[in-house]
Amino acid sequence: MATDVLSSNILFVDIETVTAEENYDDLSPVIQQAWSRKAEFFREADTKTSAELFVERAALYAEFGKIVSIAIGYFHALDDERNELRIKCITHPDEIAVLHEFVETVQRFDQNQLRLCAHNGRDFDYPYLCRRLLIHSIELPKSLQLMNKKAWEVPHLDTMEMWKFGEYKKFVPLDLLAALFSVEVDADKLLDAQQIQQAHYQDQDLEKITHSGYQNIRLLAQVYLAMLSQPLLPDEQIIYV
Questions:
Q1: Measured between alpha carbons, how far is residue 107 from residues 9, 20, 66, 73, 174 in Å?
Q2: How far apart, in whole angstroms, are the C-alpha atoms of residue 151 and residue 154?
Q3: Taken in order 42, 67, 188, 214, is the CA torsion positive or negative?
Q4: Between helices 50-57 and 29-39, what is the axis angle to 10°?
């Protein structure tokens, strides 16, 4: 494999988010009012209330949601011929604990011109992470100091952008790309936004969220390799730590 493709300064990232509070009624009056104004922009033709739309959509916005899990992965050289993908998932009911551990991890890589890689990362993962870090007064690591940067100045990778080839496209799911590239998809372990919400608030099942993060990073790294015309890593070279 090309050494630049399997560079040790690439950190694959996937975040899982939920609403900042379980219910709209738990928000402060100021945040409630702000959400109600935002909900007007995408209120559907039916009679859904701001409270119902909050549960369905607020996790997508850093101002109204929070991060409960961050999965990361990186390539590690075993020898001159073989590499492995090491995957770690930081999951905790306390968002601040998740963010601090993530920053500590990133700082270990940041000395080497770190490049993040995520699916739809430019529009979601990277700005969401930056905003939540600032909200909690956590200093941004060097690789996430993106404020006031132009799009072409952001060094990070995005498999969604790679798939566009310069064309304007709507969202293309990561699991769809994985299936197209013959990457095995364990659909039972991949959670959608509503399942993440339920696992966190109703079920309090952090393990389920962790396994979803593991799978997302596995798919992300394999899709990245496939897009660069590199062979996929066999299962025995994917390590969950």
A1: 11, 26, 22, 14, 27
A2: 6
A3: positive
A4: 90
H helical segments located in 44-167: 50-57, 95-109, 126-135, 159-164
Query: Structure tokens of 145?
Result: 């100091």
**Tokens 């997302």 correspond to what residue?**
216
Helix (H) or strand (E) holding 66: strand 65-77
Strand, coil or helix: 72? strand
Taking only the tens place, the pLDDT of each residue in 77-120 is 777 667 899 999 999 999 999 999 999 999 888 766 789 999 99
* SS percent in the chain: helix, strand, coil, step 5: 45, 15, 35
> What would the DSSP string read from start to end of 142-172?
GGG--TT--GGG---EEHHHHHHTT------
Locate 149 and state its tokens: 């940067």
Task: Kindly tell me the sign of the dihedral angle through the C-alpha atoms of 207, 209, 213, 214.
Answer: positive
pTM greater than the 0.90 cutoff:
yes
Exposed, middle or buried: residue 227 (CB in 10 Å: 0-12, 13-18, 19+)?
middle
Q: Which residues pair with 12 in a beta bridge?
A: 73, 117
| Closest among 112, 125, 122 to 13, alpha carbons compared | 125
